[in-house]
Structure formats: structure tokens, C-alpha cells
Design goal:
heterodimer, A: 93 residues, mainly alpha, Helix Hairpins, B: 108 residues, 76% helix
């Protein structure tokens, strides 16, 4: 009884996260200025990380938690570097 | 696909509800990012996904794996703490960069 319920709700959550990623990609491609694109990239990696967590829940494996942690750390570093590039014109002075 | 048959139905309902709510918060944040008119308004909605969405999804994951493996599985707290600490930092950096770029060039 509980297996189909959980599988369907996790599928719905995955579809919603995929839609959120699609909206972020639209903003990333069409954003009028560079800061809009950086913000959309940040949203995109957060949604991808959540999608990885939900996929790991569907597969019943804790492996994907570590992948999500790596995505979160790389996303933070890349967004911080891009914001610094927009602020100063170069990343490392 | 996977073996959820050992899960009690109320726990499965709670986990599914938390996962759907977290995904819905992330979706609302992305819709706001797509639809709001100016950049300074668009900075706000993605924080719904990075706080509420991350929190609810990771709580659902913790409940699921703790129930399936019959022991506390708390790896997810690392991700949650990391996201809650780094999101304000990146968004403040981004806001400063946007303010710097929007300033008239003769003032700098």
C-alpha cells in the first residue's frame, strides 16, 4: 500500500523540480543582464541538487546525498566567483 | 523500482507530502524568478527554494532513510547547514555586484 503512494509522490516532486529547472533555464538564456543569468544559474543548481536528493529517495540509496553535497559546494564556489567577477572584473587579483 | 514495502503507510504519506511541498516551494521560487519585472525583485523568490525547499526535502530524505535502515541517518544535515550558511553570502555578493553595475559610471 505504501510503496505506490510514495513512488507517485516522489515522481510528482521530480516533475515539479524539472519544471522549476526549465523556468530557471529560460531565465538563464533570456535574462536581460549578466546578474540575472548568474541568479538563474544559482537557482538551477539548487533545483538540480534537490532533484538529485529526490532521485536518491526513489532509488532508496544514500549515495546520491553525497553527490548533492558536491553539487551544493561547487555551486556556491561558482556563484561566488561569478559575483566577484561582476563586481571587480577579475576573479583573482 | 525500489523496496518501499517495509514502510508504514502513515510514514510514507508524511514523506511524500514533505517531498511534494519542498518541490512546490522550489517551483514557486523559479516561477517568481521568471515572472518578476526587475532584478532587485527577482533576487527574492529563489530564496524560497534554497531555504524552504531544501529544508523540507532533506527532512523527507532523513525520515525515509532513517525508517528504511532502522537507524538515524543524518547526512542531510550537512547539506542543509551548508545551504543555509552560503545562500545569504552569495546573494549579498550578487546584490553588491548588481548595485555596482547599475551605478552611473561618473560616480565611481
Amino acid at each position: 500500500m505504501s510503496a505506490p503512494l510514495l513512488t507517485v509522490s516522489l515522481l510528482v516532486a521530480q516533475l515539479m523540480l524539472a519544471l522549476a529547472m526549465a523556468f530557471a533555464v529560460i531565465r538563464l538564456l533570456g535574462g536581460p543582464r549578466a546578474q540575472d543569468r548568474v541568479l538563474a544559474l544559482d537557482t538551477l543548481y539548487v533545483d538540480a541538487m534537490l532533484l538529485m536528493v529526490v532521485h536518491g529517495m526513489r532509488q532508496a540509496t544514500t549515495l546520491y546525498i553525497d553527490i548533492a553535497l558536491v553539487i551544493a559546494m561547487l555551486g556556491f564556489v561558482s556563484t561566488a566567483a561569478l559575483a566577484r567577477f561582476l563586481l571587480r572584473g577579475e576573479v583573482i587579483e | 523500482m525500489s523496496d518501499f514495502s517495509g514502510l508504514p503507510p502513515p510514514m510514507a504519506a508524511v514523506i511524500g507530502l514533505l517531498a511534494i511541498l519542498g518541490a512546490a516551494l522550489a517551483l514557486i521560487g523559479s516561477v517568481g524568478l521568471l515572472r518578476l519585472p526587475t532584478f532587485y525583485q527577482r533576487v527574492h523568490p529563489p530564496t524560497m527554494g534554497t531555504t524552504g525547499g531544501v529544508g523540507l526535502t532533506l527532512v523527507a530524505s532523513m525520515l525515509l532513510f532513517s525508517t528504511l535502515e532502522a537507524r538515524p541517518v543524518l547526512h542531510e544535515i550537512v547539506i542543509a547547514v551548508f545551504m543555509f550558511v552560503t545562500t545569504p553570502v552569495t546573494y549579498m555578493l550578487l546584490m553588491r555586484a548588481a548595485l555596482h553595475r547599475d551605478r552611473p559610471s561618473d560616480e565611481r
